[in-house]
Amino acid sequence: MKETELLILGAGPAGLAAAIEAVKAGSKVTLVDENPFPGGQIYRQFDRGFKVSDAKVLGRDFGRGQKLLAEFERVRDRVDYFSMSTVWGIFPNNEVTLLLQEQSQRIRFQKLIVAAGAYDRPVPFPGWTLPGVFTAGGAQRLVKTQRVLPGEKILLAGSGPLQLALANQIVDAGGNVEAIAEAGTIENWFRLIHASRGQWQLIADALKYIWGIRRAGIPMLRGHIIVEARGEQQVEEAVIAEVDENWRPKPGRQRTLIVDTVCVGYGFTPSTGITRLAKCEHQYDPLQGGWLPVRGKNMETSNPDIYAAGDCTGIAGSMAAIDEGRIAGIAASCSLEKISPTEADRRAEPSRQRLASRKPLLQVLNEISMPRPGLFELATDDTIVCRCEEIRLREISEVLLQGAVSMNEVKRLTRMGMGNCQGRMCAPALQEIIALQKKMPPADLGSLTPRPPLCPVPLQVLQES
Ligand SMILES: Cc1cc2nc3c(=O)[nH]c(=O)nc-3n(C[C@H](O)[C@H](O)[C@H](O)COP(=O)(O)OP(=O)(O)OC[C@H]3O[C@@H](n4cnc5c(N)ncnc54)[C@H](O)[C@@H]3O)c2cc1C
Hints:
It contains 13 helices and 21 strands. It has three domains: 2-119 and 268-366, FAD/NAD(P)-binding domain (3-Layer(bba) Sandwich), CATH 3.50.50; 124-265, FAD/NAD(P)-binding domain; 373-445, Arc Repressor Mutant, subunit A. Strands 1, 2, 3, 4, 5, 6 and 19 form a seven-stranded mixed sheet that branches. Strands 8-15-9-10-11 form a five-stranded parallel sheet. Strands 12-13-14 form a three-stranded antiparallel sheet, with no helix packed on it. It is an alpha/beta fold. 35% of the residues lie in helices and 23% in strands. The chain is globular and about 65 Å long. Helix 1 (13-25) packs parallel to helix 2, helix 4 packs across helix 6 (200-215) and helix 8 runs antiparallel to helix 9. Residues 9-15, 32-35, 40-42, 61, 86-87, 115-120, 137, 140, 162, 165, 268, 271, 310-312, 317-318, 321 line the site of flavin-adenine dinucleotide.
């Protein structure tokens, strides 16, 4: 078994920033990520077969990513870096298990920083399993890393800033966006403008995206959601509807668009499998994506050996992820007695200040784009909710009528959440569906109990572990 002082899970903005600060403080760092290259979601790198001749075409995010990656390169020879390695379990005695080239590897850590990011939040609606329906993040990955367009006539439906970014990325790659159905509406412009004060980088990004959408002539339909995707073998048309403040379709306000692709992006779900498996305390916050680890000001969880930073603790964007990662890397190094508490506070202070200054804007943006109940009333009895186990809404409603009241009861009675994704995709929707049918707050339903392996692994790996 390998032993390390500080294990960092995830080489996205948060994990990279944590590694940089921890190495600078003198900690011995092991960094693990399932991707071939560091960068995470937003700074995801091209496969090595691609050559970038004009970096400007790839936008500001690419440039910012290059800056962080260059900072990481300067300390990389002091980091034990496991790429293409997936963490599938965490056990007592501070042990983590990795899947590395079909082999199992155990690592014992003194301190762990979880920086596992977030993933798309799929929403079940009639036709959402048709070929041609993508999650927004999936489509973005195609465009960003492979320069492949997801289709020819594309509808974006969802809420939040990713829609703006994705529309620009598709247009820049030569694609055709037919319309953007944006569910969120801005009721209080004054509050948004007030909260944006000082956030010049974010404002510049937003204006650039909005200008790109205007220039391409893409209709931006505010207060609209997708209610159905139709087609025989794949998407041929999409039905969108104008909605009220709870995102319930207004009668007679539907229309049909001829499209072959729908990219659906109603926000993200924090990746909490590891922190929940480690039995860290969690709380439910719908504004930030659901269940989140409870943390102190140094990003420490309720387990004194485990820290958590970035999107896996609530959706806050890459700049917040970097600052949280830096604080976690410094604090973990302080608890390893590499630097004094006074020095740790001095190093962490600039990040703390930046995080505090971005909070008001984040709050307003999350309030605008947080999914509302109408979205989870779109599925009909026949709609599949759990894709891995092919569980339809009818089967869920039946067990709820029979008396099931928690996420785990529905799981046991239907096999919902027991497939390949282990509930990563279906659990957030299931939580909202049960809450609506039972008229209970989502937080009272608990969460699906995570069990190792968190992701599919070959049987041989379990035998070795
Ligand atoms: C699909 C998607 C698209 C986005 N698009 C944009 C955008 O266009 N513009 C924008 O400003 N922001 C975007 N964001 C938000 C932005 O990417 C994040 O705020 C930022 O990347 C958060 O950084 P992070 O380090 O917390 O997580 P991430 O960047 O997600 O990094 C987490 C890393 O951990 C790895 N990981 C997770 N679990 C394991 C495991 N068990 N074993 C090994 N490795 C693991 C992941 O593969 C990933 O590399 C997007 C987010 C998502 C999820």
